[in-house]
Please model this.
Amino acid sequence: MRLTFKIIFALSAGAIALSVLIYFQFFSKHYFSKRQHISEQIDTIETAEKSLDYQVLRSGFFLYVNQDDIIDKIGSVDTIIDSLYKDPHFMHEHPQTLQKLEAYRKAFHEKTNVIYDFQTANAAIKNATMAIPALKKEAIMAFNTNNHEDLLFLEELTNLGGSVLLTKNSLDAQLIGGLDKGIRKMESHRFADPKKEEISLSVINNLKVFQDFFPQYKDAIENLEHSSTKEALTQLRKSFLLEDQTELNAVKYFAYFLVALYISSLALIIYFLIQSEQDARTDRLTGLGNRKAYESRIRRSIPSALFLVNIDRFKHYNDFYGIAAGDLILKKTANRLNALRKEWEAATLYRLGGDEFGIMIEFTNDLNLERLGREILNKFQGIPMIIEGIETSLSITLAISTQTPLLETADIALKSIKKDRVKNMILYHEGLNLLQVVRENITKTHELRQAVEHDCLIPYFQPIVSLKTGEIEKYEALARLVTEDGEIKSIFDYLDVVKESKYYPTLTRVMVKKSFEIMKELPYEFSINLSIDDITDEETIGMIKTALTRYPEMAKRIVFEILESEAMDDYTKVAEFIRIVKGHGCKIAIDDFGSGYSNFDHLLNLDIDIIKLDGSLIRHVATSPQAVMIVETIVGFAKKANIKTVAEFACDQAIYETVKRLGIDYAQGYYTGKPEAKPSSAAPQYIL
Amino acid sequence: MRRFRLLWLIAAVIPLSLYASEPITPIPQTIPYDIAKAAVGKKLFFDPILSKDRSIACVSCHNFQHGGADPHPLSVGIEKKVGRMQAPTVFNAVFNFTQFWNGRAKNLAEQATGPMHDPLEMGMNTKLIEQRVNNVPRYRDAFHEITGRSVITLDDITDAIAEYEKTLITPNGKFDRFLRGEIPLTPSESRGYGLFKRLGCASCHNGVNVGGNSFQKFGVIIPKKWVSQTNDRYALTGRESDKNVFKVPTLRNIALTAPYFHDGSAPTLKDAIITMSKHNLGVRLTPLEIDELIEFLNTLTGELPLKAITP
Model:
């Protein structure tokens, strides 16, 4: 639910961000194109006006020009002004500039009228200025230079013609002063000759035109030169830029906002990444690093030492007090270990498995690992842990390794010490060679499977000698495995593997079947090993029962050796089995008695016939008084309970003599006879 | 193909460069206009409902038989009222920089309202004009197509008329073809054109319309008598210097548009030339010079837009 919410939140935030981005893109594109457009329009006005000024000046300069050019330029400025008035963006976003545009429009309208005035004056002035030299030429033809008055007229005409040109080109009204006087002078002289009179009047008329239009001409040019349009346009541009700047700032701040949004979203993503990475590397319960964290620490390949801490009998606490209490124990354990972090330099803590913790430190040769290990143990030894108000003395087992792979080696060391149950700390060393064991286990499993599939499990028979008579009285069937290359191997090495595999019941059944086959023809008593697992296996029991029923004669020769173990708590099943097989005349032996879980109670309750004393006792019987004492006790008990005794592991004469002296009934071992494929069919042998 | 294109370019540039310095430019073959508006504008141009007594239409004074101008010295309006001015030609009016003799209208649409509202001409008011036009289903439909509105305004009407007037141009006159380098002028026409420039006529009569691009004084050298009811520039500005100042009339189709001047005071082209040379240029022309000028002015008569002027 929370995740769904997060995803929806992220998606909608993304969608909003995207639409904001698209809007911004659209907005800024629109804005910049509008801005560009208006800016261009203002530039175009300026260019058109400059071009207009040029056309006006050109029309003043040349005799006749196409004045449509002037009108066209006026028209283009007017068109742009009108288009700006129709531009909604300009109208709404630039109120100040709009006022400036209005001012410019007025100024330009004035300028247009000045240009019209200029055109009017210009045509008159130009025609008059042009007419005077033409009239001068006519006058020279018509007037007589010998005549004084004619000469005066010509002189005056030359004078005034010059000053007209000078005045027009200098735009200096002062120079026109003489014109008035000259005109009056000319007017005062009339000519009788109509041709001369006509020329004279024409000259006077043209001079008057010049005199009349010159002020308008001059004003127009001066007005054009100092036209207020340029200033108005500058104001318009300034105002636009100012208002545009305000608008631009909005765009800018919006862009800043987007960038900020982008950065903060990145920060958020990084934060989430770090958090999820941390989450993935942290054990929820204890807050320590988890296996993943440990592995990434390993990858840094710094020489390190790993202290692997295992809580003893944790499963027991869990079962006994409940999972919540179990969790509490784990937490408290973590807390105690955590205290080390302050004491040790650069120690890192991990929860590596259910009840396994790892403490990792950088390894240097001067480190005293055992001393450090004891420090860890001291956190637990003698310091009770209060769980659910119950004082519990929690103990731990510690394995230390500096050999890579650290966790594997430490784990191997831990396993080895767990079997021992004496020490609570072990330092991994090559001697343990436990890695090799693991590899061998894999090979063995493979070989075992091969053996089962190809029917290569066979029984071997070791003789059991009567210590009274010294003759072979019976045999124990021992499983052997024939490897692919024909080698016969004791099943002993495979026993651990067999127990772990699904082939254990098969092994027992094969042994029962094949032993029966071989012993059918022979007169000896023989024993077959059964474990508690076999006795509780319905199929195996069923098969045994069938065999016993089919060979009632053989049944009387069979001894079932039952291995005592801690799991031997299902007495009813065991007792039931014993009752059945005894019904067929079989005997029952307890195997490996004195090794671990020997319980005299069992012997009495279960109607046992034989006790087989364990090799670990018999081995020391020739040298250790304690061993002798134990054996004597067992033998004493057995005799009273009418139980026969067998000494296993009778491997030399000293042991043989001792067990004989101690009153044990039978001996079995390399000294009395190695296991063989088939006992000889001869009559009972006397081997000693 | 590419080589031909280059030849075309050269052919186009050479005549351009030849008459680039000439003060007169040829009339274009067409100018862009809105066909739908022009069509309804044409009907309005011929329609007497635009005059108060339904006696006259635009075409009454802008007579296509007389070069788009009025053969009467002064235009006659409703109830035979005589106006103050001689109606100038509607042909090529689109090329004038302003409209009316004194340029009081800045474009054709603005001009069109003038005669309608003038009591001496069509004697209408805006309300009446709109009412009459709106009452004609044909106009309602046509304008609805154009504007999308159901009501026709005065602006719609004048806009349509102005659009129609864009079709009233007269290209391909002999002088334009000469300018384009297509045909030569006769020697006397050519001499007339030379006089036209040399004497100073071209100072005011230039551009595509041979006039219509500046305001000038009537009677520069020898002043003409000023008549107070004349609609000259003075009537607009009140400036003394604007008395007898008028928009320079076009000389296009000038041979067809007699009588001449703002008051129709010159019945013939010859009279007009004599008056102008005397009063505005201060010269007395010889009969030969007058003939040559007339020959030149005759080359300014263009092709009439027959389709546009046929009702």
